[in-house]
Amino acid sequence: MGTQADDVTITVTGKTAGATPFLSQVTLAVSDTSAVKSIQFTVASKPGSSVRPLSATYTSSYLAERGDIGNGQIFLPVYGLYANYLNTVALNYVFNDGSSKQASTTISTDTFDDPCGYESPTVLQARAEGNSLSYDYMVLKGACSDFSPAVLDTDGALRWVGTAVLPSFDVAFFQNSFFVAHGSEIYRNDLDGTVTFLGDYGKSDGVIDFHHNVDLGKTGLIYEADTNDYYETIFMEIDVDGTLLKTWNPADIISAAMTAGGDDPSKFVYPSPTDWFHNNAVAYNRADDSLIVSSREDFVIAFDYNTGTIKWILGDPTKAWYQFPSLKKYALSLAPGSLPPIGQHAVSVTYDQGLLLLDNGYNSFFQQPPGAFRSYASPRKYHLDLATMTATEVWNYPMDELVNSPFCGSVYEDLPLNYLIDYAYIEGAVGDPLHARIIGLDATEAKIFDYEYVTAGCLEIFNAAPIHLENTAFPAIGPQSLNISTRGRVAPDQSALIGGFIVSGSAPTTVVLRALGPSLVDQGVDSVLADPVINLFDSTGHVLASNNDWETDSNASQIIADGLAPSDAKEAALQISLNPGAYTAVVTGNTDSSGTALVEVYDLSPAVDSKLANISTRAFVDSISESPLIGGFIVGSNQSSTVIVRAIGPSLSSAGIANPLPDPSFAVYDQNGFSLGGNDNWQDDPNFLAIEQNQIAPPNDKESATVLHLPPGAYTAVVQDASDSNGIALVEIYNLE
Predict the structure, then answer these.
(1) What is the pTM of this model?
(2) What is the mean pLDDT of residues 65-75?
(3) 552 and 633, same structural domain?
């Protein structure tokens, strides 16, 4: 009996050019469309390129919902093509029985008339092959033409432009679409070129104009708005369907704080048309549920998301705000050698809870005194110690040159310490034209590329941010911890490998659990568990499912179809649908055997209103045989996620564990083996206040915890004992989403 890949024929019968040369629609004739599970396209990079190919996978349900499947045909949107080029596009068809087959086609594209000059930069340093930069694509937010925004790869090649015919730099990339604000209106521009009107916020919500940037919020996107009452002060969170979720008015928040502190707010807060605040960026920090707001005229200020209460202020103490005791009391002190941000743009939260921004160095225009002035701009990163109300500058760039860029611009971090810097408005010598400049840095702080563009004001590249288009999924999946795995030592009695996880949300989710042992030999693991057994328990201790040898599971054929079949028949796996709640997977050895095993949980329904969260795994840590407890997790798909990682040992004695690990410590690594951070004693962690505020503080001072803000990818937490002792430990990953 053949597979569906053998039986189903798929033929490319047409290619229709899209609204720009970067888009095409490929028509496929399919003998049985119902057998197709998903289709992936991959646009090959040009010869000599160091950029990973642009790729996307569409599920058949997504294509059917769009109306792209019918009458024996599938219409496949393809984007990210090179203009004026014969593109090679690989196609991968996956079928419902788990089989797949591959094909290839070519798409010839026309020349693109580039009004912004993105395709003709001055190359100060080209990206070389074989470097370690973590991102390959970047969105340039500008208003130099109707084709806004633009996507470049890090070779400098233009790969996509907006089709909404809206010259606007008020843009965000979210859930595989660009959201563009123009005037009082908001539009969604999908990667296939489709444009959807989401709403006009003029009459209903008093918006005259959206301005500056669009940033990711708690649930939706945060837009800065001008209204009849206040200029560049208001910001609003709006979801992907255009529903207004929440509005904040810093004029009201700051006025209330000044009044409560005995100051007259009318001497600092002014109604429209006065530009007293000049909001140009907002960052939502999930670690403490706060909004960090850039006020170019004044400071960086943090508000509580729900109440609007001021949490802290970071800024130049020679500016007007510091003259008011009611605001001064919120000021963070600057550590020796640290400079305050001035006229800053593009605030964001880094993977280690640092505050990152572009310090433009320009003082206030309206507020008096205007504060300090610097003739250069610099990206700066601060560590904030809110226990001592201290800010320490921990990184800045450039270190060997001064760039005079007083307005606009940005700096963002992708994977830890990989940066994209945008100097949007560089003033050179008298008579020289204004120009913009984008620079990519890898984790070693090596400059990977450096491109310069002639600009008019901030119009070409007001803001630039890394985006990941190497393997985009449709439908989009929000930030969540998926496909969790933990490796540890299994022995009789209390030394089982125990994986705990929570299914959150309101709908059932389908998971596959696996217990691996023999196949770990291929990964260089010694003394593996020869015959693992897995049992799944609910929160009451009731056994929901068990498996010894995976081929005996009732859903073995589906486990194969999902590509999750263990490679050894002695390994265990089971598939089950779970309602929201807490669950525990216990891995033991058949006939009480011992050895190293791996327990894994795969979420097969990440698009539904449920997700895996708050994962924990208990196992024996053997320092003598160098057998740490290793917890792995994946953050998916195209958004960052904030997690708290904990390693628990001594407090396990209160749960009846006779041999707890006395002094657990851990380190977290990315998929390239790069260390992102770790901890020994949790109270020494720079973000211990956020750990306490989220009520996840370990019970014992010897236990470990840290907060990490992670981009999409695979991560590993390795738990050992700081004093090389042995014992049972628990590693936990809490998803703050």
Answers:
(1) 0.83
(2) 94
(3) yes
